[in-house]
Write a structure and sequence with these properties.
Length: 968
């Protein structure tokens, strides 16, 4: 307004836009103060600026907000479904070569359309164009910056730019890929991703930011709404959008001047670095590191270091002061104050509230707070360094943000593991061939121990237990005497033995610490294959937990769980079932039926039932708990996948291959979505699916799956790893079934070499591989060499584990069955007469192993014409097999019994069994033609005896099609 009192002149459009650009980036609460300062008494100018501000407020943010609509594909143009950001004006039909479909984003500076590109490729794209009247030099400079910044980058984690141009009226636009997905925090919460899964996604974001920084681009507005996550090929992929306020650090992005006025706040306050909030013109890549720290804080705690609503309620200067001077609480400290919301925050991270705090406390606190340092020189120097730090944490390796004390480094040595099974670390010279296996057991037991203690004790008590346990373990490793080892590797078993001896001589002051240590040592012995020593430690740990804490304690449940698994390895099947049944009761009593550990305990009990031959009880338990896991944890949760896989294994053991295949495919798809194809869980499921297909006779379908599993296992675990060895054997069995014996032999030999190196020549797993090689020699017709291998395996297993050890008896069975196939029925009978009672003593009358041996005894009696002796044997075996659901998996059970009944002049009963066998063999893709021919001929003969001529003729007509060209 003029000093003479004249009416104000019409405001200049340029001045209106300039003031608008200054004010629009400020919080709404500061608009009044800024307008008063810039417009003075010029009410017309103020009204014009306010009109633009109101329009921006109605439309929503553009540069600071998401570029694309989240979580769904927008409705088509003309649809009855209105979008949230529908424009007030009509949509132009076309911009350049692009057909516009609808508005999917609108803000103060521009509009984003969903558009259709028709040539040279047909695809949906997002087209971003500056609004009419908003093409000031500053806005166009920002817009050009965003366009050029994106065009310079080529990374799967950054939205791609396809094209750029100008409208007929000169308004600039660019075309980019149409990104769908949810903001990263919403995505993680909706799918209940645990802390590790969130950190893996965060690593992807760091990788994309690192790429941008290498191109000289700073985002300057990293926040959840600008990081979208979608699923592609079963994997979760994070994409960064909206480099709208990016700044060049190495090159000029545009010929126009891109200048951020000093002290103008550009960005989102709660994610803004101190130097950015202060209007520092020398903002560099470490500003984005700060924003990444805020994002990680939010992924861990569900909130930002400074509450957004509280921050925006402050005056401009106070916002700047808080960001630049006030230190936020560490994430774990923030969690400890969230009394009203901690339950819901923990629930979407699949962890108990108290455990969430303990997970974040320490290393994750250190990582986050280093990102949030006020002095940028103290932050991580790059996004890749931050990503490396997160990877170290996930691998349980030391992190640079943590204290470098000897105790910390040693504690990381004890806990560190690689790829879920082995540890790569050196403490002095204490590295033996079995060190990785033992420390894996220590690490796994340690984590479970921590959870067990924290579940039922006060935090102070739990930390005291942990401190005492840590001190013992650290003292053990630091007390290794170089003079004693004299430069030679100390075997881990020696180290464990010394630890146990030291604990006995100097018992901990509290019995719970002793129980915890015994549990750790028991798991370590288990990993080394020292099952008897493992059983002793776990038995004592269980007794202490039960005496001090009682049955409704998670530590009691976990020690019983581990004890049961050790008893399975020792073939104490009935004891294992009892331990695991008690463990499940303890889990329910201490953690509740819906806890993930309880569900895992149910899966272990079902596995024990199955091994003990109680397949119906296993199946019933699995059906109930798999449904609970799906309901409680979701179909893609790890424990749900484990339960689904266990149910698939149960169905496979019953010969219900179609059910097993479907369940394994469900588990595989879920694991790929949640973890990716190269995760150990996914690899195991792929291998198991291939094995199911092999057992179902679908060898050509099984082979590519097993080859893929082997390729992934070698990549993830390495060629000489127990898991890789197991996958190799599954593929070798398939290749053997396909008649490709040379390829199978190569895989078997490598597996044997690996297992001998890892476990020693006398270990049961090593000898199982030798037994498979014996079967390969048998397939080659080299019966003497095969029998020699089977005999050696049986003798070694009997010597190591006793004469009634089931695997030793299976090796004896291999000898007997090979003799039977070569017509040496009397010799085979003598072996079966010996080993059937032994197998009954070892596993019981109703176990599948016992049933198979009985059926084979019946077969060799059949072949010798001993029909009267064979019938009761086969009758009992067939009844037991039927009760367990094994007949569908073994068509020859019914066929063998049917032959016997036919010879016993029981044609109707015989026909029933033989027709059953024929129906089952119809589903076998690689049938033995001689077997089919014999079966068909026997059925035709029975119909002839029964006087059913037409049926006999029909079956005789089938005979030429099933009879091989030459019948030996």
């Amino acid at each position: 307004m003029s000093d003479t009192g004249q009416q104000p002149t019409q405001p200049s459009p340029t001045s209106v836009k300039d003031i608008f650009l200054e004010v629009c980036d400020l919080p709404i609460e500061q608009h009044e103060q800024a307008l008063a300062a810039r417009c003075g008494q010029d009410t017309s100018l103020r009204a014009a600026v306010q009109e633009l501000l109101d329009a921006q407020h109605r439309a929503g943010e553009f540069l600071a907000g998401p570029t694309f609509e989240r979580g769904r594909v927008p409705a088509e143009l003309g649809s009855s479904s209105a979008t949230a950001s529908s424009p007030s004006t009509s949509i132009p039909r076309r911009i350049g070569p692009y057909k516009l479909l609808q508005v999917i984003g609108e803000g103060g500076f521009g509009t984003v359309y969903m558009a259709e590109q028709e040539t040279p490729v047909r695809r949906r794209v997002a087209l971003k164009v500056i609004k009419p009247g908003m093409d000031t030099a500053q806005v166009i400079a920002r817009f050009d910056a965003e366009r050029q910044a994106l065009a310079m980058m080529a990374h799967p984690g950054i939205a791609k730019v396809f094209d750029a141009g100008a409208t007929e009226t000169g308004r600039p636009y660019f075309v980019m890929e149409l990104v769908s997905g949810d903001p990263i925090t919403r995505y993680c919460d909706a799918r209940k991703l645990d802390i590790a899964q969130r950190l893996e996604l965060f690593e992807q974001v760091c990788s994309a930011v690192q790429h941008a920084h290498q191109k000289g681009i700073i985002h300057r507005d990293l926040k959840p709404s600008n990081i979208l996550v979608h699923e592609q090929d079963g994997r979760s992929l994070a994409r960064i959008i909206d480099f709208g306020i990016a700044k060049a650090t190495r090159a000029k992005l545009t010929e126009r001047t891109l200048f951020t006025e000093f002290r103008q706040m550009v960005g989102t306050p709660e994610y803004m670095s101190p130097e950015q909030a202060g209007g520092n013109l020398d903002v560099d890549t470490r500003s984005d590191i700060y924003s990444l720290g805020v994002l990680l804080y939010e992924l861990l705690t569900g909130t930002t270091p400074f509450d957004g609503r509280e921050l925006r309620s402050l005056a401009y200067a106070e916002i700047e002061r808080v960001i630049r001077e006030v230190d936020p609480p560490a994430p774990s400290r923030r969690l400890s104050t969230m009394r009203e919301t901690i339950a819901s925050v923990a629930a979407v991270r699949q962890v108990e509230p108290r455990k969430l705090n303990s997970l974040v406390h320490g290393e994750l606190d250190w990582i986050v707070m280093r990102c949030l340092e006020k002095d940028r020189a103290r932050r991580y120097e790059s996004a890749s360094a931050l990503a490396d730090e997160v990877r170290h944490y996930l691998a349980d390796e030391p992190i640079s943000a943590g204290p470098a004390s000897a105790a910390y480094r040693t504690r990381k040595f004890v806990r560190r593991h690689k790829l879920g099974f082995a540890v790569a670390a050196v403490v002095l010279l204490a590295l033996g061939a079995g060190l990785g296996l033992a420390i894996y057991g220590l690490q796994r037991a340690r984590h479970e121990r921590d959870a067990a203690i924290a579940a039922r004790n006060s935090e102070a008590e739990a930390r005291e237990y942990e401190s005492q346990t840590d001190k013992f373990l650290i003292d053990v490793f630091l007390s290794i005497d170089p003079d004693e080892s004299r430069g030679k590797p100390m075997l881990v078993q020696d180290l464990l033995d010394k630890s146990v001896d030291r604990m006995v001589r100097q018992p901990p002051t509290h019995p719970i610490v002793e129980a915890s240590l015994r549990y750790i040592f028991g798991q370590a012995y288990f990993s080394l294959g020292q099952m008897e020593k493992s059983r002793v430690q776990l038995q004592r740990a269980t007794e202490i937990y039960q005496k001090v804490k009682g049955p409704n304690y998670s530590g009691t449940a976990r020690s019983l769980h581990a004890l049961g698994q050790t008893q399975i390895e020792l073939r104490d099947n009935s004891e294992a079932v009892e331990s695991l049944r008690k463990a499940l009761d303890c889990y329910v009593g201490s953690l509740g039926p819906d806890h993930a550990d309880t569900i895992a305990g149910a899966a272990a009990l079902a596995d024990a039932y199955s091994i003990a031959g109680r397949t119906k009880e296993a199946d019933t338990l699995l059906v109930e708990w798999q449904a609970r896991a799906v309901r409680v944890l979701g179909p893609d949760a790890r424990d749900t996948r484990i339960m689904t896989g266990a149910l698939a294994g149960s169905r496979m053991s019953q010969g219900r291959f179609a059910d097993a295949e479907d369940l394994y495919r469900q588990a595989m798809d879920g694991s790929r979505r949640a973890l990716g194809e190269d995760h150990p869980d996914t690899i195991a499921i792929i291998s198991n699916l291939g094995d199911t297909l092999r057992r179902d006779g679908k060898l050509t379908e099984a082979e590519p799956l097993q080859r893929r599993a082997l390729e992934l296992s070698r990549k993830v675990f390495g060629a000489e790893h127990p898991s890789t060895s197991s996958v190799e054997q599954n593929l070798a069995l398939t290749l053997q079934g396909l008649g490709r014996l040379d390829e199978a032999e190569t895989l078997f030999n490598h597996s044997l070499e690996t297992r001998t190196k890892l476990f020693g020549p006398e270990n049961a797993r090593t000898l199982l591989t030798r037994s498979n090689i014996g079967l390969l020699w048998q397939a080659r017709g080299k019966f003497d060499q095969a029998e020699q291998i089977f005999r050696d395996v049986a003798d070694r297993l009997s010597k190591a584990y006793g004469p009634d050890y089931p695997d030793a008896l299976i090796a004896e069975n291999n000898i007997a069955w090979m003799k039977a196939q070569n017509g040496q029925y009397a010799e085979a009978e003598a072996i079966y007469i010996k080993i059937v009672p032994q197998m009954r003593r070892a596993v019981g009358d109703k176990h599948p192993n016992t049933i198979i041996l009985l059926m084979r005894l019946g077969h060799v009696l059949n072949q010798q014409g001993k029909w009267i002796e064979a019938e009761p044997v086969l009758s009992q075996a067939y009844a037991d097999a039927t009760a367990l659901g094994l007949t569908s998996a073994q068509p020859m059970f019914a066929a063998t019994f049917g032959y016997c009944l036919a010879k016993r002049d029981k044609p109707q009963e015989a026909l029933e069994k033989l027709l059953e066998a024929d129906a089952l063999l119809q589903h076998t893709l690689t049938p033995d033609l001689l077997v089919r021919s014999q079966l068909t001929k026997t059925i035709a003969d029975i119909y002839t005896r029964l006087g059913q001529t037409r049926e006999a003729e029909e079956w005789n007509r089938r005979l030429p099609a099933t009879r091989p060209a030459t019948v030996p």
